[in-house]
Amino acid sequence: MVNPAPRDLRRALVRANIAVRENRPPYPEYVNVFVRTYQVSVGRPRTESQMYQFWFRTRGCTYDRAGQCSMCNYGIGPEIRPEVVARAVERKLATVPQGSSLYLSPSGSLLDEKEVPPDMRDRLLRKVAERRPTSFAFETRPEVCTREKLERVRELLPSGTRLVCQIGVESWDPEIRNMCHLKPTRQEAYLETAGMLRSLGFDPIANITLGGLGLSPREAYQDTLAGVRGARAAGFGTQMVFPLSAKAGTLIGWAHDRGLWEPPTLWMLVRLLAECADDSLDTHGHGDLDISWFNPQVDDVVQSRPDGCERCRPTLIAALSAFRLRPRRDSLDAVGSWDGCDCASRTDELLHAAEERGYYDRLVVIADRWASDAAEAGARTTLPVL
């Protein structure tokens, strides 16, 4: 069998991704905002603080709508009334203590004006400014990250606020990013965006995934390690590693349901962090790594997460939580001598296993399975009623 051309394969995967996304239940119109808090260690030198992370409802991520994200599901919904959503966010923001760390996020990008109208964004930023946060973080994509928008953010926030911008790099390999994550962003855009953020005094964070669609454990590990080092060399000040979960309404979630993808293990994340955590230390001895989404709750959206067994999981979560506050290799010492189960050794076997095929072949299998399932479903709907 001859594999399809990369362009044809990607088109098939994007079509499948869009179709899977259409089955997501929309967020109800009465859920406009929610907040979660957690401890973070930020800045250089690092200081520990409480993070207030705000999510607010939008129509959904523009790029997700176009099928350009195989793994995220931060919600979709009907077109919003900006006035109603903004008021809901403002009420919650008013309860945040002065001088806190704040993170403000829609379902996709704060700087995407198709998702967050400029007037609404300015209004929310003014309310954020009233809290005089020590740090303010948001996420965006290079396609919508312009100097004018960044200057506006800086203009609206207090001069002493540390401004942090997270960019969805996912992989430093353009082909893996394009085929496995379905993000066609050109490589130069990441370099240009990192430079622009630094020139305007923002701290750029590269969001890098572990466990992309189609990647074997060995490929995923090597890709993430290369991504950390590539983004670091490009000038991103922090490399944020996200081990992926199987989420409903995503192509990764669909593939997981059919035995075609598995989340990375927590041991894989530990091995990765231990290998590169001390590669780039500042004058205070702090590393430039951070981690997120390593301990999500399994629910209607997160169907399968990075994990260990019942014996090792509590120790892994404790060690990873400690690493988040102090990103050094020795923060993982608690799991260095673990011998309570064979999860670590099984992960090591996966990372060193010989492979007969690569991620492209696995993506072909996923696309073929989608086409087969779709054809079967279509045949069922056209059967005559007897």
UniProtKB/TrEMBL annotation:
Domain Elp3/MiaA/NifB-like radical SAM core: start-end pairs: 51-275
Signal peptide: none
Domain of life the protein comes from: Bacteria
Pfam family of the protein (one): Radical_SAM
GO molecular function: catalytic activity; iron-sulfur cluster binding
Protein name: Radical SAM enzyme, TIGR01210 family
Organism the protein comes from: Sinosporangium album
